[in-house]
User: Fold this.
Amino acid sequence: MNLSKNLENKIRTDIVLKSLTSFKIGGRAKYYIEPATQEELKKTLIFAKNKKLKIYCIGAGSNILASDKGISGIIIKLNSKNFKSFKFQDDTLIAQSGCLLSTLLQRSRSRGLSGLEYFIGIPGTLGGALAMNAGIKEKNIGDLVEDVTILDYNGRTKILSKDEAGFSYRNSDLDDVIVLSATLKLKKSSKAGIDRVINDLITARKRSQDWSFPCAGCAFKNPANESAGRLIDLCGLKGIRVGDAQVSLKHANFIINRGNASSSDVLKLISIIKREVKKRFKIELTEEIKIWK
Assistant:
């Protein structure tokens, strides 16, 4: 490898994925690195290319189911302060992908800027949120985007327009690139108005969502004009369990890890849910969580 000794020393082989994901499931990563700079990130991509490794970019790990057998590629986490800066220009926010959504929300609120409050309680980083176009029924993070700066796996930087980023429901065209930053357009508002939205959403989520055990949020995307959770509930699947993986009694679209659930437990439960929903409603559910094999 034509890499600096410093970078070689940063590439680790002792990381267990369950420590990186909100599901607390997953085996060992073959390679793992937290590059300190964009230059180190580019050198990491060279390393991956030379080794013919699949690249997995992880933010807060809040929507990932990782295999118990481990991942044979390289996990890249943009955790350095050099990937967490942000600035405001009037009602525009320019933020790097490693920033936590919660931090950007609070800083925007303090400036009386509306838009990010709809993502209160959604764990994760800006990069992860953009890749999956995170959001709620009324709002998606992609709605706020003006442009996204990405790094492709050949080390080339490019600025994508909102349309080029390909945002759609819980999806984007950003899966096979590394998101570096984004420009978000916010709106002037009162703190009181922003707080009303935040309080209403927090109340609704406490009532319906289940974070009492490790999980990855909603397991399935909502079908058109329908709720995946409602369909699963109508199939009588609340509480069904495979090993330590269980459909939440509080929210049927949450699969929780009651202790030592394996990825195979979760996958079996996903298969049962999809089969039963298709049998009763002729609807094919699609996973919202990312399954790493």
